């Protein structure tokens, strides 16, 4: 998969050299290309922002450098990439969206600073390719770079060959299928007794059916405790008699 990122802080993406994503890049599974937005600003100060029309605090990112930068990225490939615009006013980034992105050949992320990018830019590219405003949560970051790191990590680990055990993504919280709208329950490893706290006996029993049932019960309990609104969204068709007792 190819991923392009246009930002005024390309150095922010150094963590993409590390761990699973770093290895995926080394192995050629993920091809990340960073671009400095200011390379397309032509005044002596390489200005990328200006005051907002209509007044108000803060600055808005100018359309010209963004337009030239996106044109240059689009011209470097064949079919245009899907463009992901991080913004707190976007649609929520979910595991489902991460899976959708993981199936794309090419993504372009446009993390902004200040009050965001002049709205005409994405209106323009929306006529040529799929453009989406996406939020990583109901809070406001100083810039979109951290949001892009979050999205690339979520998408990158779903690419074939990135996770050592592909099954771990299937059992993750939110994974479509049995875990849709469910949070994963607690996990344990050796030793069986740590500071007098024992691993639940069922996990040592070797009884796969009972362990699966216990894990689902724990997932239901944790979801009820931490995210009750997700429980309400569970598909009743996917519930069994035992689920309903939890
Ligand atoms: N005034 C904007 C608003 O209230 O929607 C916030 C602008 S924020 C200071 C600057 C940039 O950070 C945004 O344009 C976006 O790129 C990024 N950003 C901030 N919070 C985000 C979030 N929750 N999800 C995705 N991107 C975010």
From TrEMBL:
GO terms for cellular component: cytosol. InterPro entries: Alpha/beta_knot_MTases, tRNA_m1G_MeTrfase_C_sf, tRNA_m1G_MeTrfase_TrmD, tRNA_m1G_MTases_N, tRNA_MeTrfase_TRMD/TRM10. Its main location: cytoplasm. The keyword Chloroplast does not apply. GO terms for biological process: tRNA N1-guanine methylation. It is found in: Cytoplasm. Residues 1-231 form the tRNA methyltransferase TRMD/TRM10-type domain. Keywords: Cytoplasm, Methyltransferase, S-adenosyl-L-methionine, Transferase, tRNA processing. S-adenosyl-L-methionine binds at residues 136-141. Its EC number is 2.1.1.228. It catalyses: guanosine(37) in tRNA + S-adenosyl-L-methionine = N(1)-methylguanosine(37) in tRNA + S-adenosyl-L-homocysteine + H(+). GO terms for molecular function: tRNA (guanine(37)-N1)-methyltransferase activity. It comes from the Bacteria. Homodimer. Belongs to the RNA methyltransferase TrmD family. PANTHER family: TRNA (GUANINE-N(1)-)-METHYLTRANSFERASE. Specifically methylates guanosine-37 in various tRNAs. HAMAP family: TrmD (MF_00605). This is tRNA (guanine-N(1)-)-methyltransferase. It comes from Streptosporangium saharense. The gene is trmD.
């Amino acid at each position: 998969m190819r991923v392009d990122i246009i930002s005024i802080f390309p150095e922010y993406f150094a963590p993409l050299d590390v761990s699973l994503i770093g290895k995926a890049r080394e192995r050629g599974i993920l091809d990340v290309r960073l671009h400095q937005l200011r390379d397309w600003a032509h005044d002596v100060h390489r200005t990328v922002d200006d005051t907002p029309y209509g007044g108000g605090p803060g600055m808005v990112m100018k359309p010209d450098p963004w337009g030239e930068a996106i044109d240059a990225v689009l011209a470097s490939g064949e079919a245009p990439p899907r463009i992901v615009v991080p913004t707190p006013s976007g649609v929520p980034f979910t595991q489902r969206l991460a899976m959708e992105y993981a199936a794309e050949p090419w993504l372009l992320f446009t993390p902004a600073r200040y009050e965001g990018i002049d709205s005409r830019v994405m209106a323009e590219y929306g006529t040529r390719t799929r453009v989406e405003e996406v939020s990583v949560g109901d809070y406001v970051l100083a810039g979109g770079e951290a949001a892009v790191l979050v999205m690339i990590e979520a998408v990158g680990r779903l690419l074939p060959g990135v996770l050592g055990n592909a099954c771990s993504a299937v059992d993750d919280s939110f994974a479509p299928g049995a875990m849709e709208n469910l949070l994963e329950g607690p996990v344990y490893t050796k030793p069986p007794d740590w500071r007098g706290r024992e691993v639940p006996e069922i996990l040592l029993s070797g009884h796969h059916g009972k362990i699966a049932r216990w894990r689902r019960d724990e997932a239901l309990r944790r979801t009820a405790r931490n995210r009750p609104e997700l429980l309400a969204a569970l598909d009743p068709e996917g519930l069994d008699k035992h689920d309903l007792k939890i």
